[in-house]
Amino acid sequence: MTEARKLRMGMVGGGPGAFIGPVHRIAAEMDGKIELLAGAFSQSAERSREAGARFGIDPMRAYADYRQMIDAERKRRDGIDFIVIATPNHLHLPIAKAALEAGIPVMSDKPATATYEEALELEAAVRKAGLPYGLTHTYAGYAMVREARAVCAAGKLGAIRKVAVEYFQGWLSGPLETTGHKQAAWRSDPARNGPGGAIGDIGTHAFHLLEYVSGLKVAALNATLRRVVPGRRLDDDCNAFVRMNNGAAGTLACSQVAAGERNELLLRIYGESGSLEWQQQDPNRLMVKWQDRPEEIYHAAAGYLSEDARAVARVPSGHPEGYLEAFAVLYREFAEALDGWKQGHANPLPPTLPGIEAGVRGMRFIERAMESHGREGWVEF
Amino acid sequence: MTEARKLRMGMVGGGPGAFIGPVHRIAAEMDGKIELLAGAFSQSAERSREAGARFGIDPMRAYADYRQMIDAERKRRDGIDFIVIATPNHLHLPIAKAALEAGIPVMSDKPATATYEEALELEAAVRKAGLPYGLTHTYAGYAMVREARAVCAAGKLGAIRKVAVEYFQGWLSGPLETTGHKQAAWRSDPARNGPGGAIGDIGTHAFHLLEYVSGLKVAALNATLRRVVPGRRLDDDCNAFVRMNNGAAGTLACSQVAAGERNELLLRIYGESGSLEWQQQDPNRLMVKWQDRPEEIYHAAAGYLSEDARAVARVPSGHPEGYLEAFAVLYREFAEALDGWKQGHANPLPPTLPGIEAGVRGMRFIERAMESHGREGWVEF
Amino acid sequence: MTEARKLRMGMVGGGPGAFIGPVHRIAAEMDGKIELLAGAFSQSAERSREAGARFGIDPMRAYADYRQMIDAERKRRDGIDFIVIATPNHLHLPIAKAALEAGIPVMSDKPATATYEEALELEAAVRKAGLPYGLTHTYAGYAMVREARAVCAAGKLGAIRKVAVEYFQGWLSGPLETTGHKQAAWRSDPARNGPGGAIGDIGTHAFHLLEYVSGLKVAALNATLRRVVPGRRLDDDCNAFVRMNNGAAGTLACSQVAAGERNELLLRIYGESGSLEWQQQDPNRLMVKWQDRPEEIYHAAAGYLSEDARAVARVPSGHPEGYLEAFAVLYREFAEALDGWKQGHANPLPPTLPGIEAGVRGMRFIERAMESHGREGWVEF
Amino acid sequence: MTEARKLRMGMVGGGPGAFIGPVHRIAAEMDGKIELLAGAFSQSAERSREAGARFGIDPMRAYADYRQMIDAERKRRDGIDFIVIATPNHLHLPIAKAALEAGIPVMSDKPATATYEEALELEAAVRKAGLPYGLTHTYAGYAMVREARAVCAAGKLGAIRKVAVEYFQGWLSGPLETTGHKQAAWRSDPARNGPGGAIGDIGTHAFHLLEYVSGLKVAALNATLRRVVPGRRLDDDCNAFVRMNNGAAGTLACSQVAAGERNELLLRIYGESGSLEWQQQDPNRLMVKWQDRPEEIYHAAAGYLSEDARAVARVPSGHPEGYLEAFAVLYREFAEALDGWKQGHANPLPPTLPGIEAGVRGMRFIERAMESHGREGWVEF
Fold first, then answer.
1. What pLDDT, on the 0 to 100 scale, is given for residue D15?
2. Which segments of chain B are extended strands (E)?
3. Does one domain contain both A35 and A179?
4. Whether C174 and C291 share a structural domain
5. Higher pLDDT, B271 or A345
6. CB pairs below 8 Å between A and D: how many?
7. SS3 of residue C212 by DSSP
8. Which residues of A touch B295 (CB under 8 A)?
9. What is the pLDDT of residue B4?
10. Who's near A84: CB < 8 A, 6+ residues apart?
11. Closest chain D C-alpha to B280 CA, distance in angstroms
12. pLDDT at residue B3 is higher than 70
């Protein structure tokens, strides 16, 4: 029963001190389609082996370098089926290119690359390789985000007129990057992170969620970026006006100095006859507010939801699913896409799974936001 | 016991079809310091008498014209002590000026006037008359708005860095002004409303609340206004970036085409060490979110609140107060100010009660927002 | 235009230290149909005059004794039209009887009397007098309680199967009655309060709300009462099983030692196909949960509500109304009932306004709960 | 690096149509310490193989019978380290006994057995075998349940006086067991389920949560059970009064006919100076309400939480964890206990992991509730 063989995953990054490594492992393996079998978890051979041991990986397959991993794994009969990239941003492009050139599909942390130019380069590499490339815009994996997307696609709100998306965190309210905090350190360093601070780290999530759910594209924006914490080298608080390709307009805001907020990602979309509201911290509910009848709460896993939303539920309604489950939905879809690709499908990625196109748009968004900020005015997307 | 005599109020506007007339009456009379005894409720003598009868007013004191009311009342020994203006905006200035010139203090619906120029004219008239002038920015009367103001004033959040205020309604999602709806009709007519649509009607509330609570002033703004409903003559959806006089920055948004929203006024203020959040539709709670300790919910009428917040509670904690009670707080303070003025106090208005200064700033805000919109960029306040 | 004359109210009790006096005054006068003109606010003549002065009442009409007030007022041409009773419970019966015997209608704080036997005596007196008698079960005045009642009456939930009502407060978590706190003192004294502590003070509210909304009657109950705070003479925490007259069953709980709760009155009613939930601290929303479709939130003052609910709204949807407004709805209905009675209507009280029948049932509830507690088992109602 | 070897799990039950099989698999494997390698998923050999294939299991290790699995696996060098029981209740005892007698540790779905007598028999078997036995009272695995337990244990609320726990579902509002629904069918059949319906299925969860968090024991109870849906053979709606071993008292309620509820498990515990509230459908927050200071919201994964609560967090605060993660916490602790047991620890189960004692108490609770119901009165526990 060969269809039951799990896909073999190799991870780059995600080693000691990175919370995202275990998250990728849990998410990838959750639905029983993937197993983590190899990794270049750290640039130190010893730390990579340590991380591998914690993941229960054969020490032979805990590499000190991604190139080494790619070389060694492609020679094994039981070599990895794909790699996941969980490193600081500046390594995304070289790793992804190396994998693609070696014929290995890629699942990547967002943002796709460190700069927009790199994203274009990566896009070309993905096209040339003809291999599946997925991007872990985690929030796209929530059942109620899928439902919100279905509500918009079905036109239930009428024509969309107004949008408001915000992503507020408080964890960088102080100069955390100066205290030895690894996550904060690389994210605040233009060389490793790229030029966008909060706009890149979380603004891209908000941007993706907005387009993903609304089915619209941002056509123009006017962004203002701030560096609030003294000495910080990248933006930590951003506000933008956006115009969508159908004429709707609104705001996109993100901040990592919103003291007291943990992970407040809030999306609101207003149509002619009603609106929807989704909050990441209360992810199993979708508020749908009608102009002329009672407000509704849609609950995850309920029988009345769209097929897309029901398809991703693992437990009955009333049993909360969260961030890891959303992440795992993307991995499940990526695994299915890999199966499809192996069977020769030309375009195996389902429309619900973010790929290189979303990656390029995200990097374009950062680039456009910075351009707009510099000009103090509107720019076309 | 002369101190017990109720102040006599005369109302202009607020007649048939206006929900705001009864609201003013209830709010004014709630704390037992004021009674409505006269009115020019409508420009039709008959309809004014009808409205007066519903209010239980002597038919002799139900006037067809505010000038007539002012003339007649000043001749009575038991004439009105002040007037309240509850008309469409274009009448605010002439009525207020007439009253002030006749020596009658004024309590006015916001916005203070129809245009910024008028506001300056009114300000001069108020100064010249030396009479109390109050402005019913209702939300300033909520206990938990007072508490939020006290939290900011005490510096509990650390230096304020970021602000976000929004006021979303959906009632103008369709062309209501073309259906005979009186409220919508005059608000959509530049001649009666002034040049600002949503920005004037509710944006000014958001603006006032922001300055009132934070203790800061808007120093610059970049606003974009839209007319979403086809055929509408005034803006119905607005977004603005704001910069505060201490360097903090953020957003101010308002909309009357946010389908499904009823009266979503939400204020968030972020300091170095924490933030606060207040929603008008859940007015008896104030959320205070700390960076390093548990989030707190402050409840109205609780013993641990600031003196300012406790002073306005009428019922024990857990018994909700609402919009009418907030409105009534302003009337109570206005009544106390009138008493102070009668006793010769020079500056009788307490700092908690919005007056002409707030009125001028509000009109300036509309004017600046329109200027910014025209320029598509930042303007100093 | 005599129909516009306000009804003249005389208050008994509600003097210094009682928060309920001003609450009655505000609620009674809110809708412009009633004015407070006389009172026996305290048994001390001086304190009664002081209270009267604060209410702006003619000192001649601030009496030291309710009998004196009744005698004096019935001789005046402009004497009071009704009295409101806002005293400790043990005085409810003698005051009400004296008023009724003098031909004066009565609006009374709940509970109707101090004991069940007194309630029967009062019922006889009300019947004999043929005068309007109202009971201020405040929560019955909330718009969304009216809506919940309409939802049940229309059978929208299917047959009702299960009920759960609870009323939790924390203010008596300590021995407040020993500290000079007036409210706590008389409520903890069997001689002034009657035999039911929490069960009488707030259990009766829960009981009334349950029957009022469901349209059902409690047919049997099994109650257990506790005195949690050492030295307390009356129950302060109670739980009961209830069986309704249609076979539905559930629980009724109340407590005044639920530390941390302010005024948590929560009603849930479950039918065959859905359920409703209403919380007094969030009174402008009614949750309606369906078995097979999205949960709904009904908002106060919305156009889709029942006529009964819309009838009591004073401000547009999204502008919160609270406890005082609910209280005032009962006064408005009482005023209308008085008008009807003056015009000779036999049964002027509308079914939405609690009267003597509700009063007797409430006292019966206390008596039955104590009987059940003594027997440690079920009793028929 | 032998410490990294994953524990090998064999599952009994959880085959086609059972949502709980995949849930156990996901939860067991989530933290990388366990892998599912064998199973007797169904009593049909073919269906067991099908289920095994979906789980990616070697067809040789997909057994048709648990006895067969136990025999075969103990002969393998790489045989299973423990079994998990995910069958209807009546099979729990024979499977657990067979495993224990074969020297195989057991992780079991709750309730431990079908009857109290069986629970005692199982307890003896566990004691005799001296093997780890865990019980998946899932809710005990939530971080904020751990925090609530820590708050109580630290005495922060003062002496506990009052408790209220409820677990309301609506999925059995109709006669679902007559429609071919497998879950409903066995749960409504006394032969497969045992004598307790809702009281056994979810009442035991409520009971366990109450004791687990409060640190107290139920000392007496008075329960009333109903069969609401006509034709149903087991209780579907239950209410109970409880008395705790410290003198505190309160209620325990459960229902599966609460139409419109999904999985409303709510725990409230009241002490002298404050209270806590936790809802399973909003699991990442713990409300802590103080009598004299602002209410607090504790957030999962926050730095200020107790060590016990922080220990179970997998993602940063603000990233929701849910039901599967809570389940997985129990598996993680079970895996650690197994490691401890292999190293010769006498009592390897941590106090946070429910074991046979909790299993026996749960079955005792059902038995006592039925006894109380039959007597219509209180019973000692």
1. 84
2. 7-13, 34-40, 82-86, 106-108, 133-135, 160-168, 218-226, 237-244, 249-255, 264-271, 274-279, 285-290, 295-299, 379-380
3. no
4. yes
5. B271
6. 124
7. helix
8. 260
9. 59
10. A9, A10, A11, A12, A14, A24, A28, A106, A107, A108, A109
11. 19
12. no
Q: Is the ipTM of this complex over 0.85?
A: yes
Q: Which chains touch D (3 or more CB pairs under 8 A)?
A: A, B, C
The tokens describing C90, both together, are 């043990």
Question: Which one of C239, C255, C279 would you mutate to disrupt binding with D, by most D Cβ within 10 Å of its Cβ?
Answer: C239
Q: pTM for the complete prediction?
A: 0.97
Of C26, C263, C319, the CB nearest to B30: C26
Tokens of D125: 């078997």
From the list C174, C224, C291, the residue facing D241 with the nearest CB is: C224
Do residues C172 and C256 make contact, with C-beta atoms less than 8 angstroms apart?
A: yes
Taking only the tens place, the pLDDT of each residue in B119-163 is: 999 999 999 999 999 999 999 999 999 999 999 999 999 999 999
The model's confidence at residue C348, banded by pLDDT at 50, 70 and 90, is confident
- Chain D residues in contact with B293 (beta carbon < 8 A): 304
Query: Is B237 inside a domain boundary?
Result: yes
Q: Which residues of chain A have pLDDT under 50?
A: 1-3
Give me the pLDDT at residue A2, please: 39
Chain C residues lying within 8 Å of B59, measured CB to CB: 1
Encode B340-378: b = buried (16+ Cβ within 10 Å), e = exposed. bbeeeeeebbeebbbbbebbbbbbbbbbbbbebbeeeee
Residue D299: strand, helix, or coil: strand
Structural domain boundaries enclosing B29: 2-139+329-354
Cα of A341 to nearest chain D Cα, Å: 20
B167-207 pLDDT, tens digit per residue, is: 999 999 999 999 988 888 988 899 999 999 999 999 999 99
Nearest to A169 by CA among A281, A259, A283: A259
Contact D378 C376 (CB under 8 A): yes
* Residues of chain D contacting B303 with CB distance shorter than 8 Å: 292
- Are B71 and B204 part of one and the same domain? no
For chain C, how many structural domains are there in total? 2
Q: In this structure, are A27 and A121 located in the same domain?
A: yes
Is pLDDT of C339 > 80?
yes
pLDDT band at B1 (very low <50, low <70, confident <90, very high): very low
Q: State whether B51 and B101 are in the same domain.
A: yes
Closest residue of D to A52, CA-based?
D4
Contact at 8 Å (CB) between C27 and C324?
yes
Q: Is residue B320 part of a domain?
A: no
Same domain, C231 and C192: yes
The answer to whether residue B323 sits within a structural domain is no
Taking an 8 Å cut-off on Cβ atoms, the answer to whether D295 and C260 are in contact is yes
Same-domain check for residues A188 and A154? yes
Q: What is the mean pLDDT of chain C?
A: 95
Enclosing H/E stretch for D224: strand D218-226
Q: What is the CATH number of the domain that holds D258?
A: 3.30.360.10
> Quick check: is D323 in a domain?
no
Confidence of residue D4 (pLDDT cuts 50, 70, 90): low
Chain C residues within 8 angstroms (CB to CB) of chain D: 157-158, 161-162, 164, 166, 170, 173-174, 222, 224, 226, 228, 237, 239, 241, 249-251, 253, 255, 257-261, 270-275, 288-291, 295, 376-378
How far does the CA of residue C80 sit from the closest CA of chain A (Å)?
44
Q: Give the DSSP letter string of B208-261.
A: HHHHHHH---EEEEEEEEE--STT-SS--EEEEEEEETTS-EEEEEEES--TT-
B vs D: CB pairs below 8 A: 30
Interface of B with C (CB under 8 A): 1, 4-6, 19, 22-23, 25-26, 29-32, 53-57, 59, 169, 171, 261-264, 280-284, 299, 302, 314-325
Q: Which residues of D touch A261 (CB under 8 A)?
A: 318
For residue range B338-371, what is the model confidence (pLDDT) as tens digits? 999 999 887 779 999 999 999 999 999 999 999 9
Q: How confident is the model at residue C120 (pLDDT cuts 50, 70, 90)?
A: very high
CATH number at residue D70: 3.40.50.720
Pick from C26, C314, C320: CB nearest B283? C320
